[in-house]
Design brief:
Length: 165
């Protein structure tokens, strides 16, 4: 692929929209940029959650989702590719939501949340795959990861209930 055919060549990490959409650059790590973006989001999200507390972190996550609809659409437009793998802001927001459901930020819970999120984000069970294919917008880029986070939260909540019983 020549330089002018590579959509990443149309981006600049000096552009704050691109920088954020590419997960502070984590989406440029290969292979598996979504996994690297999720890992970066996990670390940043855990730090933010521990500093802000649950309520402020959830507000921040909601704001990041709204902002992400713009960031992801603008970056996809600039690349000329819908939902390019390097766009990982959606992974950040998805893992943020998963973090908010964890009972504690211990290594075991963090690993479980990360693995569940990646499992559902990669496999995209129904209806995640449907929305991923049908919605061709920044919202479409964001919503499949939000749904993967919701799917991830279900077993976390069940496990929390079983442990506390």
């Amino acid at each position: 692929m020549t330089d002018h055919q590579n959509p990443l060549r149309r981006l600049s990490l000096r552009n704050p929209v691109h920088f954020l959409a590419l997960g502070l650059g984590s989406g440029l790590i290969s292979p598996a940029p979504g996994t690297w973006g999720s890992l970066a989001g996990l670390v940043i999200g855990a730090l933010l959650l521990s500093c802000l507390g649950q309520n402020l972190f959830l507000i921040l996550t909601a704001l990041c989702f709204v902002l992400g609809c713009y960031l992801c659409q603008k970056t996809a437009d600039d690349m000329g590719v819908h939902d390019h793998g390097a766009i990982v802001w959606d992974e950040f927001v998805g893992i943020f939501l998963v973090l908010s459901a964890l009972p504690e930020l211990s290594p075991l819970w963090l690993a479980l949340g990360f693995i569940l999120f990646r499992l559902f984000d990669i496999t995209k069970p129904y209806p995640i795959r449907y929305f991923d294919r049908k919605l061709r917008s920044g919202f479409g880029i964001m919503i499949d990861d939000l749904l993967a986070a919701c799917f991830s939260i279900v077993p976390i909540v069940i496990l929390r209930l079983l442990i506390s019983a």
